[in-house]
Write a structure and sequence with these properties.
Blueprint: E1 2-6, H1 16-24, E2 28-33, H2 42-45, E3 56-57, E4 68-71, H3 85-93, E5 97-100, H4 110-119, E6 123-125, E7 146-152, H5 159-172, E8 177-180, H6 184-190, H7 204-216, E9 221-224, H8 236-246, E10 250-256, E11 261-262, E12 265-269, H9 273-285, E13 291-298, H10 304-318, E14 322-323, H11 325-328, H12 331-339
Parallel strand pairs: 1-2, 1-4, 2-3, 4-5, 5-6, 7-9, 7-10, 8-9, 10-13, 13-14
Antiparallel strand pairs: 11-12
Helix pairs in contact: 1-6, 3-4, 7-8
């Protein structure tokens, strides 16, 4: 499938869905839409993801032929920006499907729904949960599978990236490992899944449990993509639901080097990561005791030397192996799982 990714004004730093698809997706990305960096290439903005020659263009009218438009931005609250409307409209009129991970459902938009019917295309809102969800039974520990969950000190600290890097490292090591997506980007990459942050609160734990149960017979290890943070003033509820629903044996704590406040909520400071790790293990304890397996540190804004020192300091503070999974892979964390 030939895909154009919409990432206006946010590429690459705040377009995590776009970056995730470029780095890990099997779709053929033919262009990225970003008015801010139009005229460059993906390689200019995001080197090393294997898409160096993909052009960044101003709008759909400047893109080559494509089959689907993917909204590659995940703004706070998941809203739809009015400035994106001309590109979505133009994509539909060119006969392309539109894939969105927003809380704003394109299928409920009267204009887009009418255009999609007229041009015979699909509007795929990946944050649509199944209708038959129910409460958790607390049965994950009864399954013959070992569960690792990524958790964070904040949103956008690399939980999905770390999860995928762990899965890749595990498979390269010969382990029978699977990925459990819980957010819009992971669902796009996996081709399916339950959007945990869109579930009824009573059913959140159950949705995570169901996702694991559906994969438990196929895999020996399941790596679950975390969401939000237990100390986030807006998103802590989904984080707790995933923690208790997944009943993981192991946690990997994700943090961004130098980040001291919650993104978008800068009046809220991030506690020391070691203290956050203890909060997670304490919260898990009453339902299913867990342990900290490793730490993942996003050092994208640091040069090599400072990054290495930051990673070493992070691991020392947590008392577990730490890596930047993009810079150096996740083998050091995986070794802890293998050696347990």
């Amino acid at each position: 499938m030939r895909v154009v990714i919409l990432a206006h004004e946010q590429f690459p730093d705040r377009a995590k869905t776009a970056v995730g698809v470029l780095r890990y997706g099997d779709q053929e990305v033919v262009a990225v839409l970003d008015r801010k960096t139009a005229g460059t290439t993906v390689g200019d903005q995001l080197p090393g993801v294997g898409a160096d020659d993909v052009p960044v263009v101003d709008g759909v009218d400047d893109a080559p032929e494509f089959d689907a438009l993917l909204i590659g931005i995940a703004p706070i609250g998941g809203g739809f920006e009015a400035s994106w409307r001309p590109d979505v409209r133009a994509a539909i009129e060119r006969g392309a499907d539109v894939v969105s991970g927003l809380h704003y459902f394109l299928g409920d938009d009267e204009e887009f729904a009418a255009l999609a019917e007229e041009y015979g295309v699909q509007l795929r809102d990946v944050r649509t949960p199944p209708e038959n969800l129910t409460v958790a039974e607390g049965i994950v520990r009864d399954l013959d599978v070992e569960v690792v969950l990524t958790v964070g000190t904040d949103c956008s600290t690399g939980k999905m990236t770390t999860t995928l890097e762990l899965v890749e490292a595990a498979r390269e090591a010969g382990m029978n490992a699977g990925f459990v997506p819980t957010g819009q980007t992971g669902i796009v990459l996996a081709g399916g899944g339950i959007p945990i942050d869109r579930t009824v609160s009573d059913f959140t734990n159950g949705a995570v449990e169901r996702s694991i149960c559906e994969r438990a017979e196929e895999y020996d290890y399941l790596f679950v993509e975390g969401q939000g943070s237990i100390v986030h003033p807006a998103y802590s509820a989904v984080t707790c639901g995933i923690l208790h629903g997944a009943q993981p044996e192991h946690l990997v704590l994700c943090h961004e080097a130098g980040r001291e406040a919650i993104h978008g909520y800068e009046s809220f400071s991030i506690p020391d990561p070691a203290a956050v790790a203890e909060l997670y293990t304490d919260l898990a304890d009453a339902v299913a005791p867990t342990e900290l397996l490793g730490g993942a540190l996003n050092t994208a804004d640091l040069d090599e030397g400072p990054a290495e020192r930051a990673i070493d300091a992070y691991g020392e503070s947590l008392g577990v192996p730490a890596v930047d999974p993009v810079r150096e892979g996740a083998d050091a964390i995986l070794a802890e799982l293998i050696d347990e």
